[in-house]
Design a protein that fits this description.
The chain has 246 residues and is an alpha+beta fold. Helix content is 55%, strand content 13%. The strands form 2 sheets. A 4-stranded antiparallel beta sheet has the order 2-3-1-6. The chain has a two-stranded antiparallel sheet with strand order 4-5.
């Protein structure tokens, strides 16, 4: 996959040298009608992307990659045209274009569908984005409610917040992103282990403290019983001496 600048240089070279279409670099991808589209604004839905790219052909399949936990867009997708030549037009005209303050990258790709993935744009891509967002919010609320009922909800630690920010805001075109995300995931795992160990230590301390209180209570009780026995003994001796004097 090529960068925006590489694509611009290739296109400029073809223009300068008057290279015919049948000798263009695009011909290397005549076997695929798929595009990789990166750098997308996170607010865009499938329908928004189809609206932008349908000006160069008829899209027949789109896979907007989303976060498994939140359902939010990760800023890149794969799109297939009905006619492969539409890919050439989209790459030449939209790679490097600005969309909602972000620069998108568009390039040919040989996409392999996941197991069970059905080709098509789906009805959800044509729905009102606001309705889709509301339904997604409702699903997330229900899931969060179910999770909170089964176990006490834990606030996110600092490392988890940093990981979410990295996934959400870091440029998907940066080749270092995957490495940075993996390193941050390892930090999160270590931090969670430390939190778990700290929780176990605190519970153990609480149990020991409770045992000490219980032991102190029993000792106090034994001391009280001893005092009462001593008082009874003295009363008995005093009564015995008084009876003898009589």
């Amino acid at each position: 996959m090529q960068s925006i600048r590489q694509i611009e240089r290739l296109n400029q070279t073809e223009l300068d040298k008057c290279i015919p279409p049948n000798a263009s670099w695009h011909t290397d991808y005549r076997d695929t009608a798929y595009l990789y589209i990166g750098g997308l604004p996170f607010e865009l839905s499938e329908g928004d992307i189809l609206t932008i790219f349908s000006q160069y052909g008829n899209p027949v399949h789109i896979n907007l990659v989303r976060d498994k936990d939140t359902g939010k867009s990760r800023g890149f997708c794969f799109l297939k045209y009905e006619d492969q030549r539409s890919c050439d037009l989209a790459v030449d005209n939209l790679s490097g274009a600005g969309v909602m303050g972000r620069v998108i990258s568009v390039d040919h790709t040989r996409y392999k569908k996941k197991e069970g993935e059905v080709e098509g744009i789906g009805d959800e891509a044509l729905e009102d984005p606001d309705d889709t967002d509301r339904e997604g919010d409702e699903r997330r609320k229900r899931r969060k409610t179910e999770e909170s009922e089964s176990e006490e909800e834990r606030p996110m630690i600092e490392e988890e917040i940093e990981l979410q920010k990295l996934l959400r805001e870091h440029d998907d075109d940066d080749p270092m992103k995957e490495y940075l995300v993996q390193a941050k995931r390892e930090e999160v795992a270590e931090a969670l282990k430390a939190v778990a160990r700290q929780g176990t230590t605190s519970r153990g301390h609480e149990r020991r403290h409770k045992h000490k209180r219980h032991h102190h209570h029993r000792s106090s009780r034994r001391g009280k019983d001893s005092d009462e026995s001593e008082q009874d003994r003295r009363k008995y001796e005093h009564r015995s001496r008084r009876d003898r004097h009589r």
